[in-house]
Amino acid sequence: MTIGFLGAGNMGEPMARNLLRAGHQLRIFNRTRARAAPLEEAGARVVSSVSEAVIGAEVLITMLANDDAVRETLLGVSAAIDALSGDAIHISMSTISVRLSKELAREHARRGQPFVAAPVLGRPDAAAEKRLWIIASGARATIARCTPIFDALGRGASIVGEQPWQANVAKIAVNFTLAAALEAMGEATALIRKSDVEPRVFMEVLNALFGSLVYENYGRMIADRAFEPAGFRLALGLKDVGLALDASRDAAVPMPMAGVMRDQFLSAVAHGLEDVDWSAISEIAARNAGLT
Amino acid sequence: MTIGFLGAGNMGEPMARNLLRAGHQLRIFNRTRARAAPLEEAGARVVSSVSEAVIGAEVLITMLANDDAVRETLLGVSAAIDALSGDAIHISMSTISVRLSKELAREHARRGQPFVAAPVLGRPDAAAEKRLWIIASGARATIARCTPIFDALGRGASIVGEQPWQANVAKIAVNFTLAAALEAMGEATALIRKSDVEPRVFMEVLNALFGSLVYENYGRMIADRAFEPAGFRLALGLKDVGLALDASRDAAVPMPMAGVMRDQFLSAVAHGLEDVDWSAISEIAARNAGLT
Amino acid sequence: MTIGFLGAGNMGEPMARNLLRAGHQLRIFNRTRARAAPLEEAGARVVSSVSEAVIGAEVLITMLANDDAVRETLLGVSAAIDALSGDAIHISMSTISVRLSKELAREHARRGQPFVAAPVLGRPDAAAEKRLWIIASGARATIARCTPIFDALGRGASIVGEQPWQANVAKIAVNFTLAAALEAMGEATALIRKSDVEPRVFMEVLNALFGSLVYENYGRMIADRAFEPAGFRLALGLKDVGLALDASRDAAVPMPMAGVMRDQFLSAVAHGLEDVDWSAISEIAARNAGLT
Amino acid sequence: MTIGFLGAGNMGEPMARNLLRAGHQLRIFNRTRARAAPLEEAGARVVSSVSEAVIGAEVLITMLANDDAVRETLLGVSAAIDALSGDAIHISMSTISVRLSKELAREHARRGQPFVAAPVLGRPDAAAEKRLWIIASGARATIARCTPIFDALGRGASIVGEQPWQANVAKIAVNFTLAAALEAMGEATALIRKSDVEPRVFMEVLNALFGSLVYENYGRMIADRAFEPAGFRLALGLKDVGLALDASRDAAVPMPMAGVMRDQFLSAVAHGLEDVDWSAISEIAARNAGLT
């Protein structure tokens, strides 16, 4: 398939590589062109404008940083959405808000364009190793057409509904659950440290209970207080909790744990931690307990 | 070894069986004698008083319901602690408070009796299948003497410190982390349900992320709203969160998530849910969102 | 002075009357013209478009419902801001976000127009009785020119800074403090009711402590569970807590109580209480305790 | 009346003076005898043992520091309760837990002794100036007999029920409401300070809203960050929030704001603030926002 691909960042770059490997033709646009350049050797065409990537594409994949980038690119002044052909599928793969997803669905519907939301689970290394998990929703027939793309990118997919925004809410809810695990580990570790128990030993106990790589990997970072380099920046964690709070407000669903995390992330930002790994939220629980 | 064993409940009964299988001699006391009776066929001597179980034992294992039961039995009117010989090890295996553990340590020290706290991770089925994880602390030499017992009961042990109460704080901290996972799943599921996504599909996504039996099993209960029979009663969940709050107060460690869970468990109790499984804490998030 | 006045709602109407009484000339625009009609008898000119109200005015007062209304009216398609003369002062008196206030300041600055934010404390009855308290900020000289207007509207004013948005943040912070008092009264009353103490008697104790009309009036509503007619709609309370959360996020200030209130208001909305008085947040504390 | 008076601390000392002024005969016991000595000049008999104060008294007033002191003194080894005559009224005036109040009621009932709980609102200066507010409960006839004492101590009383513990729960609930006001002021002030608004000006706005001496006095302390000398020690604030949490647990009433305050007070203790005024809880909101 001929794919227009917008966004060749930490996640987009390895995803684009896997699409190329699977035999798809890619026209890639990235705001900082240099970041996309290495993909040319892998067979992609790196273009200088969004419209070059979009015109004539059968599929448009967006893997952009946040709501603002997606809105600006698709619906902004030089609205890429109008350059997209009527039967081309837009697959929105970044983590965006429920509101923007609904807005995109409306705009695509007005133009008769099929639209699928398919945010992914996994960090850059999982993207590189084709181990992403895809959370997709949209019209069944459209999703069926996306299967080869999903197969090229990950180890499996969950189809959560027929409204694109449902995939976004599922992604937001999963990220919330993960953030809650980090915060819980952080509070527990503060108690453990003040009890003069070695955090590494506590993590051994935690692993015996959960038997999960997520707890194991983050547990190690928290125990060792090793938050750099950031796998996922703390500022993005705050953004994701904000998406959960926005979704919960619109749906009238109290989420007290999201409120707790918002405040811990804010305190982390207030103490200059926005650029380290988001598991550094655990440092706030420690600080609040008088640990340094 | 000759073991006095107090408490043959859901957990104590299968644990006693495994000790018998490993060749130890057991004198078992249970307040409701009938509950312990089946263990006679397995080779135990079921006795009618605490002192019969304790006198002459090389090891005393307590697996009682809560602080009150332990305090009453060991330190109460007919103080069993005084019937215990001077070199017999008391292994306290139930989930008790840090305060009581410290009190027991003091009382045993006064009598020159070695004392180990060794609470366990795992539900009754894990106890039956020798898959418990033991969290132990106490003097190194004493713990070394306990190894055959730990081997007979579980799949492994973490030695967390030399002060018995440190094992209790670790157990309390782990339970807190587990309860936090339940609450987070509950809040996420409320959002998911109000978004017309099938909870079972959401749990598929959660499993793709965590790859943990804990999330898988509890996720199924929450998705299906199947809280009976209770594997672990909600009232005990409230008790455990209370232990975390007590420990965190004594150590001056703020734990905002424990506060959130306390309130959710209290609301569950106020709505008559104390006897169903503690994963029913998720019903409170649903109820607060107007779901029924 | 010649004043363009936008918004003749519950608050705007009595405020306009007081300005007329003080001898000012008013050109009033209200989206629903009929609402403004009675002001004609009081001497105002009721106009049919924003621009008619704005052109030639020495002062523009906005008392509109929310951010959207202000943004639409001032900066929207038929941007009223461009119809405003270069030395006319815009006094923004409604409760708007810090972000919008900053945006307005920028837009006015570009046009060389003086801008003052002056949100007010008080409900419609206070507005009618000239008992509002005005929270103002902006350039000192500009505020000095507004004095006759503030004098006509209220019993006093606090000048909180030279940046207009500082008045908005102060208003948001005060409303937050008030909402916190309501939530605290609600939680306390739930405990009191479950203890079989008469809420009215509890309010007597509260009044003995605080000696504040705010506690007295809201306490009576909460004790009697009399939430209609709404003095201030619960949906607006949720909006105001949202403004506090937005401001606190932008300033990186954790505000855990704002998070608690957000969830209680959301639960109230989920249970159909958005149109009753915001003191009905107390019903959620009662409901969570199993009271009906 | 002949009154046995236990506890001549910050509050008890001025209360005892007012009882002497009203013509009552007092036998006062204080653990640190020297503290009570000045009361001898005022006409009291300062005694060296609890029993000397209790034997023969018509009324026993306890104004002791906390639950432990009350339990120890009344029910401990040399149980003062047994020295009290059968028709002497015990008026428990300190802030104690609901549980202890119920226990005292049971013990007094067994001995046929009338029992009234009558905790007071007000700080030492209010006690000196006879401006306390008394929150009383107990059998009506018994309370009627206490009226001269209440009249001698304060400016009024609320009779909240016929069960003594109901007065304790009312006192605990009122203190909770006050603590919530402090925390709310603290969070608001952190936002205000980060917005470069002068806290004193913000307090002016707050006073315009609440018109309450409580807000005025505490607002000044928070704005000026003047927490010494302590009018009410922060450690006592944590204790009082703990009483609210205990009462709410026993009554199954979620109180999320109490949870928030618990954590803020704990963080304050972790940072060495237990001996300054409890309004220093506001320092934690500031610290969490990165202010120093």
Protein architecture, described:
- The structure is a homotetramer of 292-residue chains.
- Helices cover 54% and strands 14% of the residues of chain A.
- Chain A has 14 helices and 9 strands.
- A 6-stranded parallel sheet of chain A has the order 3-2-1-4-5-6, sandwiched between helices. Chain A has a 3-stranded mixed sheet with strand order 7-8-9.
- In chain A, helix 8 (140-153) links the parallel strand 8 (132-137) and strand 9.
- In chain A, helix 9 (164-194) packs across helix 11 (213-224), helix 9 crosses helix 13 (256-270) and helix 12 runs antiparallel to helix 13 (256-270).
- Chains in contact: A-B, A-C, A-D, B-C, B-D, C-D.
- At the A-B interface, strand 9, helix 9, helix 10, helix 11 and helix 12 of A face strand 9, helix 9, helix 10, helix 11 and helix 12 of B.
Beta-strand content bin of chain A: 5-15%
Q: Greatest chain-chain interface?
A: A-B, 66 and 65 residues
Decide which structural class fits the backbone of chain A: alpha/beta
Largest sheet of chain A: 6 strands, parallel
**Would you tell me which CATH topology of the largest domain in chain A applies?**
Rossmann fold
Q: What overall form of chain A do the CA principal axes indicate?
A: elongated
Estimated helix fraction of chain A: 40-55%
What's the total count of β strands of chain A? Answer: 9
Tell me the series of helices and strands of chain A, N- to C-terminal: EHEHHEHEHEHEEHEHEHHHHHH
Number of helices of chain A: 14
In CATH, the architecture of the largest domain in chain A is: 3-Layer(aba) Sandwich
Q: What's the level 1 CATH class of the largest domain in chain A?
A: Alpha Beta
Q: How many whole angstroms does the radius of gyration of chain A measure?
A: 20 Å
The number of domains of chain A is 2
Which regions of chain A contain 5 or more consecutive residues with pLDDT less than 50? Answer: none
**Oligomeric state of the chains present here:** homotetramer
CATH superfamily grouping of the largest domain in chain A: NAD(P)-binding Rossmann-like Domain
**Biggest sheet, spatial arrangement of strands of chain A:** 3-2-1-4-5-6
Mean pLDDT of chain A: 96
